[in-house]
Specification:
561 residues, mainly alpha, 4 domains, five-stranded mixed β-sheet
């Protein structure tokens, strides 16, 4: 007897579906319920704390120099000779540091890196919940859970979620901004103006947060605004009812970039200091490139830039060479979703792809991974920005295959879900066994830096308590962090007046001087070493040498032997 064909899943992603009823099929595509979401959130909490326990035990929280710097910036907002918002800097955006601020006030958490772990863990949990809710709007429950598992079990993401890096925060913003944009567009089409007004407010807050987190957030916010505005323009009746909310939405969207330009103008006398100042990506790329060397591969070449970014995203997402299959399936899922018009606002998840291709080609942002020449480690974490898009698109394609097989090959179709979960778990296990790329980058690039900073820290701890120390903090603030020395005890670039006076006459203004070759303090000592006695020279392979001096004329501080 011929088996009846299973009914095709009815998808209406652009409409607000009612809550699930007791008789509703479990395979209907609709927004997630609280009952579905709670177990996902609970699993995310367990994964987060397991990752923290493992990474803390192995000392991984402070491998990245950028993580140390983020903690240092947050710390100096209150712990400096000139505390306040002026200490936020002008290149890195401020929200990550403001989130770390409450935790970094505890000296122990600053030293061991936990101050940066708590906000990142919270963002990881929020992003996992958001991805499940997003996937649930365009997939059946089982495949939404599979996509979420692929995302949440990624070892690179789990590692980053224990550090002060900005990726977990931005991924949470990207996922939730995409989700709320989907919900807002659905509410517009359903003519639910009260829902639209509420969603516009929350979308605006997320755009503001993304703008103050990473520069890709500026593009993300602009595109989200365009999607919502276009949807409202096609439904004039709803637009007329939400004009006040839309006005606030627009003002908040543009307030972020404008306020950051004003901040740079006020403190650095150049609104585009983050683009062309001494700490910009272009300046760093110029400083770190050997004299006479060619630019990195991908510079002014979008083709190579596309290759580097997509290859990095593959290696970040999957073990061995299975990343090629993941990327191919994800692209197939993307094409399928576009053809079926499955809630097109979810394409915001793919926005990091064109952004980073442009950044690599024209923004002086190189990416190096061991799989491609020059076979080094640099900025491999940027590929993580594509992880949500790969997770959702991959399992859209897998779900489509299962639906096609459900009538012609039902046995194969029924086996796809358990096999998919096994493969997700196996992918995680293999990546951990061979050390995830982002963690490996941190380990490789931190070895010489940590060795130098620990050596300096040992010397700093021998100084008499509370004496002023002249030291440039932008490059090796980790030495002060490791030694547990308050930043306000140092004469550093954070306070222009005391810094300039100390550079003009180091021995007069500081009891001790830490000069690392090539930094402003080293140049100041070379120009005027009168009254200084060299105590120690610390050299580490791959790092400039540090020289520590004692002032012979500062005050009446005790002289060490």
């Amino acid at each position: 007897m011929k088996e009846p064909k299973p009914e095709r899943l009815k998808r209406s992603p652009m409409q607000l579906e009612p809550a699930a009823s007791a008789t509703e099929s479990p395979d209907v595509v609709r927004p997630a319920t609280k009952e579905e979401t709670f177990p996902v959130a609970l699993i995310a909490v367990v994964l987060a704390f397991m990752a923290l326990l493992l990474c803390y035990r192995h000392g991984y929280l402070l491998l990245y120099g950028d993580a140390v710097a983020h903690l240092g910036i947050a710390r100096r907002i209150f712990d400096s000779r000139n505390p306040g918002l002026a200490q936020l800097g002008g290149v890195w955006l401020p929200l990550p540091h403001l989130l770390i601020l409450p935790f970094v006030q505890k000296m122990e958490w600053w030293q061991n890196g936990l101050a940066g772990a708590w906000p990142s863990l919270a963002c990881f949990i929020v992003s996992v919940v958001g991805l499940f809710r997003l996937a649930r709007r365009i997939m059946t429950p089982r495949w939404a859970f599979a996509a979420t598992a692929f995302y949440a079990l990624n070892p690179n993401l789990l590692y980053l979620s224990t550090t002060a890096m900005t990726e977990p925060l931005f991924l949470a913003e990207l996922i939730w901004l995409t989700l709320l944009t989907m919900e807002c567009v659905a509410a517009i089409r359903a003519a639910q103006d009260h829902v639209v007004s509420r969603k516009l407010f929350f979308i605006a807050l997320l755009i503001l947060a993304a703008v103050f987190t990473r520069y890709d957030g500026w593009v993300l916010g602009a595109v989200a605004w365009c999607i919502v505005t276009w949807s409202l323009a096609r439904n004039r009746e709803v637009w007329r009812k939400v004009v006040p909310s839309f006005t606030v939405f627009t003002l908040l969207t543009i307030a972020g970039p404008l306020s950051w330009l004003a901040y740079n103008q006020h403190f650095f006398h150049d609104p585009l200091d983050f683009l062309r100042g001494p700490y910009s990506a272009a300046a760093i790329e110029k400083k770190t490139s050997p004299p006479g060397s060619h630019h990195y591969r991908g510079w002014h070449n979008p083709g190579w830039a596309l290759l580097f970014f997509t290859r990095t995203a593959q290696v970040d997402a999957a073990a061995w060479e299975t990343g090629f299959a993941v990327m191919a399936a994800a692209i197939a899922g993307l094409i399928l979703a576009i053809r079926r018009r499955l809630s097109l606002p979810w394409l915001l998840l793919w926005l990091p792809l064109p952004f980073y291709v442009y950044a690599i080609a024209y923004g002086s942002v190189p990416i190096f991974i061991p799989q491609l020449w020059p076979h080094a480690y640099y900025n491999a974490r940027y590929g993580m920005e594509l992880l949500p898009a790969l997770a959702v698109s991959l399992f859209l394609a897998v779900e489509w295959v299962q639906l096609r097989w459900s009538s012609s090959q039902p046995r194969k179709a029924s086996m796809m879900y358990p096999i998919a979960l096994v493969l997700v778990a196996l992918n995680t296990a293999v990546m951990i066994y061979f050390t995830p790329l982002v963690l490996k980058e941190g380990i490789v690039n931190s070895t010489t830096r940590i060795s130098l900073e620990k050596g300096i820290a040992r010397e700093l701890q021998m100084f008499p308590p509370g004496v002023p120390i002249l030291m440039y903090n932008s490059d090796h603030v980790g030495a002060l962090q490791d030694a547990g020395i308050p930043l306000m005890q140092t004469l550093n670039e954070g306070d222009y007046t005391s810094w300039k006076a100390a550079l003009d006459d180091p021995a007069k203004h500081a009891a001790y001087v830490v000069a690392i070759k090539g930094d402003p303090v080293s140049k100041a000592v070379d120009a005027n070493s009168k009254g200084l006695t060299e105590m120690m020279v610390l050299c580490t392979t791959g790092q400039p040498c540090a020289r520590i001096y004692r002032s012979d004329i500062y005050g009446s501080h005790p002289k060490t032997p």
